[in-house]
Specification:
Chain lengths: 309, 292, 257, 257, 305
Amino acid sequence: MQPTIRELIKEKKQARSSNSRIEKTMPKVFFLMAAFSILVTIGIVYTLLIETFYFFTQVSFVDFITGTEWYPFFGNDPSFGIWPLVSGTFTIAAIAMMVAVPLGLSSAVYLSEYASERNRKIIKPILEVLAGVPTVVYGLFALTFVTPLLQSFIPTLPIFNALSPGIVVGIMIIPQVASLSQEAMNAVPQAMRDGAFALGATRLEVALKIVIPGSLSGIISSLVLALSRAIGETMIVATAAGSTPNMGFNPTESIQTMTAYIVQVSMGDATFGSTIYYSIYAVGMLLFVFTLLMNIIANYFSRRFREVY
Amino acid sequence: MKEKRIVINENKTNRRVAYNKIGRVLFFLSTAFGMIVLATLLIRIFTQGIGYLNWNFLTNYASRRPEDAGIKAAIAGTVWVMGITIPVSLILGVGTAIYLEEYAPRNRLTRFIELNISNLAGVPSVVFGLLGLTVFVRFFAMGRSILAGGLTMSLLILPIIVVAAKEAIRSIPQEQYEAAYAMGATKWQIIRTVVLPAATPGILTGAILSLSRAVGETASLLMIGAMAFIAYLPDSIYSSFTVLPIQIFNWAGRPQAAFQAVAAAGSIVLLVILILMNSLAIVIRNKYTKRY
Amino acid sequence: MKNQESEKLIYSVKDFNLWYGDTHALKDISLDIPHKQVTAIIGPSGCGKSTFIKTLNRMVELVPSVKMKGDINYKESNIFDSKSSVETLRTEVGMVFQKPNPFPKSIYDNIAYGPRIHGIKNKTILNEVVEKSLKGAALWDEVKDRLNENAFGLSGGQQQRLCIARALAVEPDVILMDEPTSALDPLSTAKVEDLIQELKKDYSIIIVTHNMQQAARISDKTAFFLNGEVVEFDATEKMYSNPNDKRTDDYISGKFG
Amino acid sequence: MKNQESEKLIYSVKDFNLWYGDTHALKDISLDIPHKQVTAIIGPSGCGKSTFIKTLNRMVELVPSVKMKGDINYKESNIFDSKSSVETLRTEVGMVFQKPNPFPKSIYDNIAYGPRIHGIKNKTILNEVVEKSLKGAALWDEVKDRLNENAFGLSGGQQQRLCIARALAVEPDVILMDEPTSALDPLSTAKVEDLIQELKKDYSIIIVTHNMQQAARISDKTAFFLNGEVVEFDATEKMYSNPNDKRTDDYISGKFG
Amino acid sequence: DGGNTEDTGSEDTETEGTAEEGTGDISGSVQIDGSSTVFPILEAVGEEFSIAYPDVQATIGISGTGGGMERFIAGETDIANASRPMKDEEAELLEEAGIEFTEFQIALDGLSVVVNSENDWVDYLTLEELAMIWLDSSDVETWADVREGWPDEEILLFSPGTDSGTYDYFDEVILDGEQIDRQATLSEDDNVLVQGTAGSLNGLAYFGYAYYAENQDTVKIVPIENSEGEAVTPDDQTVQDGSYEPLSRPLFIYVRNDSVSEDDAVYEFTKYTLEMAGEMASEVGYVALDDAIYEENLELLESLR
Ligand SMILES: Nc1ncnc2c1ncn2[C@@H]1O[C@H](COP(=O)(O)OP(=O)(O)OP(=O)(O)O)[C@@H](O)[C@H]1O
Ligand SMILES: Nc1ncnc2c1ncn2[C@@H]1O[C@H](COP(=O)(O)OP(=O)(O)OP(=O)(O)O)[C@@H](O)[C@H]1O
Ligand SMILES: [Mg+2]
Ligand SMILES: [Mg+2]
Ligand SMILES: O=P([O-])([O-])[O-]
């Protein structure tokens, strides 16, 4: 045996110092890319903060945070109390969750515990299309189909109301709940199920007593993420919920959410530098804080769920 | 000899078995509900919009006459915006994922970056719209251009791509790394020859899914002013633009009832594009998973 | 080691075949498994040991692609008969797996799981059952002061005995064990082996093992599987001293596997 | 089976210790591993066999929590010396794993992987290397007509020989093997065992196995590990016929593990 | 930003001919933004223009009159559409920015007040009643508060958003600049207003005539009593002859003088607009001006070259 290859390799090794240069620079390049996400966050926080700061030079922070009237457009006597927008946002989110939690979780259980591999492969992508339908399309669907349908049950329901877009937002986030929860359920080791089956448990008992408890933190984190998506949803609400910032949690009233307010203003294009212009940043800031909180909570739970096994 | 304490009652067992059957039906119906809604939505849109769906619809610019209205500019705008979004988000996203999965030490900074990315993924698109408006449109004076729109979209989907790419990289079995290390490969060689080839299907799947989100995205682009009548094809990244969902939104806001149907026709096109993208992603996912 | 009682059968398998999709995993298996004895199943990896043992409590049906042909009689009645439910069969036939798989619950709740799903809620009875089962699995002394701690805190060997205790809690007739000691250290292995010897007074035990010495130590009868077939089934002593089949001899002497 | 040459050493390990975090996985290991012979490492699960063998090509350092103390000399120089790069060491010391781990590439590209990452692009040379390595791994005849097919299409045994061929392609001096046949069927096992006998003419081979008969069949020297220590290290014949240590005897006779 | 594109070299003398033949050898871009009310007219013009001048890129945004003005002031656009006359502040800002501009009236719009089509009690409304209904400061909550005998049901109000020229105009002529009712639903999307009214028995809305014209079967128009005391319904006739007052209003475009003089594309586009506006206005549901006014406008434009 003549070690030709070995000699060749040795030769090449000496000839290549560029190799080690690449080896040293690549991690730095990739680090910069990863750090970019922080830059984006800083960008978001910075822009929101600066303009929010201007807003609070014009509107009292206390009024903003405690006020129950939101009439920014009334030139003579505007009021900037955030609560109507917050209550509108949470009304929508609550309705959406009432739709998405039972349906999404049931779908997750079905997909993870009952469906055959083949059915799962067919059904899951179909459900995921629900999450991919553009929100403009959903908005029109809510306004021109769901609302009239609801009106045939509740004749007094006004054309713009929280109920219809709330339901549609809920439908939109079903796949989010279903997919993520199903993945969490999948992560419960088959050995756990086998243990229960071997004791004579039925599938339902395995699902309810082994799988769901075992994936609880993953499920909760999927729900929190879905909630944050519902809070951030814009076009459906802007199209079908009206734009009256009403205080309270009445689903049959027309409401306005934080996101809908932001688009409303930016489409009307409030004059740069006006109080209204700054107000969208203050609302945006609050929205950012809300979703940040949601994500931190979701993260906490998903971390817990990873550590179980 | 043992005496039996646990008496198994056949009746009780039968009841448990019956509950299981009921559960199965309920869970299935819940799953079916989502699909029924989807079907309803599709049927509605199709019956509404099919009348306007023809070749002209794809090749005409928007028009005041519903029968002449088309989506040429919107499609072109979408393609141009994606032309910015795809490379920017893919390069940044995959690079970030490679750093986090392959190089990052397990320390606070890394955890902070990861937490930060998952937070960004949850930030509502209107907030990205605000960022785009303030930073790209105003501060960098890009105006209401394709560039501003594309960059805003890139930031919007960047976190999703990072997460998908991370998952794809993480699912590469340790044995593959071991095989390469044992041959004397260096880190970067392993990334090039093992990690990227193996993660590509997963990255592609995630990228397609997040791009389909970008294609349907409306609110943030509305905020940076993409709502406009445009009867030309963009010729540079500084051109004004409109995109399909915004064109649909625009039509839906018209007084003439016929434009509602045109909007529905636009929705069909958008949905078909999205379903095609989703299917492509699924095909890639099914074709390339479980290879090890 | 044989006695009169051993002639009573707990399982009688006849011409049983099983496929995973197109893989023919069990081929014409016929075996009579005696009551209240330890029956060992040995054979090289992939020969169908796990498949066979999982068929005995119909756990194998959880794999969607499975197709089966043939009869398995458990106490005189066919387990595939639609009359009796799988749940009942699995209650009478306990199972212990290769990797200990306690639930992420307290030690107490692990043991009480089986009785509870069968509707037993009475605290006194449950307490009794837990104590008896843990004693039966030779674990009581080690854990009696920490019944409410999470089962994941136990060592591997303890977890495996916990799983055995969990199976005992519903008072089965048969205990199936699929390589119950392969993930355990020598000391824990010895404890589990002792336990098996103890249990066979009350239960029929069927155990899969890849450790031929283990089979020799603890079993009364041994079945040697190869490529989905039963090559030889006989009294353990006979198999190890004087096998009928050349392949059995090769396997036992370590020529392959 | 011993001859003169065997006294030449390829590795010389002295008082080597290794920790995974707080787990002391290797304790004061001292071993002299001979050149161009087969050295087998046996011992029960978790005793540190894999850890030890992965230390020899510094693969163990990929585990972030690893801490090490002591010396390992490879051909007279300490492998932890900063002078020589890990990459060079790993080029000279090939490794084959328990589970065959071909790359999801063509058979050809799998073999050419090593030469290529070391900068060899010349097609003629690569062709030669591929053929030579596959012949060396006794796989050439089976795959020569489908070099461009994906390696995943090969059977388990073929995949394992492919991995051996891949290791041969960079012409190493040593080949480390971590339970290379434990995932294989008897026939494939026999083929790989034959191959190892063949390879030892040109290479020093260190093989981890849980199959004691296998160690007996193919190795010249055997080291018995227990709980991170070397209990005994001697000529294989001696170990199996007349071990010095009671624990070795117990293990070899199947009392535990 | 927008207006300034390279000169194609075509001189003043040639432009007349080019427009007629529509050979469109002019290239460049024109940035237009502003009123959503005016948008349909400009869109129609833009559509025709893009056929005649395929190399000119005309972008017509929909930011509302206020938004359009803002971009005009910022120098981002060449033309601002407005559904109300420019405000004094806006003119001042333009002067500060050194931007000279010219106002062209291009059409008329009758602001239409509508109710639900099932509403059988409202026969007409007076200006006072209209003001009472819409003012925040008045106590009118229900129809019965407006006129004796009307149902005692709360009125649901739908109004264009405060950034729109439509809102500004209504606020000025009907409410005298006072606060509009806080309970009103404000939307920049006029279709929302149509749907709101069509969907609520007690709905009341106002918006541009075009939106009424297209939705006559879902909403019902309310005649408004003018200063002469006659209840008038808006239509081409009453809007153009001024008898539907005060709710008919002029629609404008504002054009940068330097863009017109320096940029052929902008000049051609403006000219095209002025030539086509009347026809296009009627086509999309507005009311054309007297031809004479378009003639004057064109002369004014030529004088800017
Ligand atoms: N879920 C499954 N789907 C398809 N084939 C399977 C499945 N489980 C097992 N098999 C195949 O059936 C055969 C028998 O497998 P089984 O697990 O019963 O072997 P075993 O004797 O228990 O092996 P081991 O000692 O490795 O546990 C094998 O060829 C295996 O590949
Ligand atoms: N990555 C790791 N991190 C922490 N501990 C480890 C790691 N790898 C191995 N260990 C521990 O080190 C000890 C030795 O493990 P090693 O894998 O070397 O054993 P082994 O003899 O190869 O066993 P087997 O026969 O099961 O492969 C074990 O106690 C194991 O739990
Ligand atoms: Mg098995
Ligand atoms: Mg090992
Ligand atoms: O969009 P407006 O015409 O109402 O300003």
